[in-house]
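User: Please run a holo structure prediction.
Assistant: Happy to. Please share the sequence and the ligand.
User: Here you go; the ligand is acetyl coenzyme *A.
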Amino acid sequence: PNKQQLEKLSNDIKERSIIDEDLRIILNSFPKSAHPMGILSSLTSGLVAFDPSAVNIDDEEDMYDAILNLLAKIPVLVAWVYRRRKGLSLEYGDTSLAYVENLAKMMFQRPNKEYVQNDTIVSALNKLLILHADHEQNCSTSTVRIVGSSFAGLFASVAAGISALWGRLHGGANQAVIEMLEEIQKDGGDTKKFMSKAKDKSDPFRLMGFGHRVYRNQDPRAIIMKETCHEVLDELGLNDDPIFKLAMKLEKIALEDEYFIEKKLYPNVDFYSGIVMRAIGIPFSMFTAVFALARTAGWVAHWNEMMMSDESKIGRPRQVYKGKTKRDIK
Ligand code: ACO
């Protein structure tokens, strides 16, 4: 966009960041034990009840509204899910702030204390959101496209994408990395033992944050995330953090290991993003929800591209039956 278009887009998003108070009732009806990704998917799907015209996929104006409503409300929903888990009051944010500053304030503000922006947190969150914004036909984006291809509407499509992202082989890997590191630490920190487990075909354990369906060499996002990770830990004085030290040790061993070299398994973006989020104070159950917030931009762009195209057709993978043609019934 040019400067004016960017300004208009930014203002249009800010104007739509209010969420109907009734959505709080839905949020508050989830048990405290509910996982943030399940809540986020449900609330995203629920948004259509407050914005019924969002299903008018043939109306350009309604679709512009639906897209901007989603981009505007998702950060508020993520912040609400986080705050409810912490038992804090739900905030609407401050539209005089830029996107990332507003997100940081909505999440971390204490009700009884003025919020002071922390440049390290803002810069890390900014990089994290940009790096996670889009990544072509990954599992969740393909899900958004396939649901959207039936004309189900934007909110339903993105809610399905959030569910697809949740899994630990995809976006959920950022949470799984920290859980794995904590498990190794609790077990005494024997990295060799866990490397052996990862290589043992009879053991379902995999080294979380390693490997990628497309990247058979370095994940370029991981290189930037690793730098960010060092910056954040330096600036927050967390270099001696045992989980971070363990991660660095594991990374070194894996990069020099025959099995990992032969199978071209390198650290992916999730290996470091979890450490960054943990360092800036986000609980690990929220990691994938922050990823979802970032990826919403990409999902929306893919969905919009598909809707604008005259060549789009309903997604319908074919199945080839390879089973028996005749079976006797006893
Ligand atoms: N640890 C140990 N072994 C692994 C790992 C790992 N993390 N990843 C792959 N392998 C092995 C597999 O066992 C398999 O071995 P085999 O050839 O002897 O059977 C071989 O490497 C190829 O693995 P596939 O599962 O076929 O590779 P695929 O491309 O389908 O999977 C995936 C990619 C899902 C990311 C996988 O590497 C994995 O499970 N990684 C851990 C989870 C993870 O970090 N996911 C985040 C991905 S990034 C993202 O979604 C944002």
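The first helix runs from residue 3 to 15.
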